Amino acid sequence: MTSQSYSEGILGDLRVLELADEKGQWCGKLMADMGADVIKIEPPGGAPERRIGPFYQDQPHPERSLYFWHYNSSKRGITLDIEKDTGRDVLRSLVATADIVLETFPPGYLSSLGLGYEQLRSINPSIIMCSLTPFGQNGPWAQYQTADILQMAAGGQMAMCGYDEEDVPDAPPIAPGGGNAWHIGSHFAFIAIGAALYQRHMTGQGQHLDVSIHECCSLNTQQSISAYRANGETLQRHTGGQASAGSRQTSQSMGKDGKFLNRQALGVRTPPDRLRALAEWMNTYGMADDLLEEKYLDPKVIADRSEHLNDVLQRCLAAVTAEEAYHGGQKARYPWGEVRTVEEILTDPHWDDRGLWQEVEHPELGQRLKYPVAYALFSATPISISRRAPLIGEHNEEILCGELGMSRAEMSVLAEFGVV
Question: 191: domain range?
Answer without folding.
Answer: 15-219+355-416
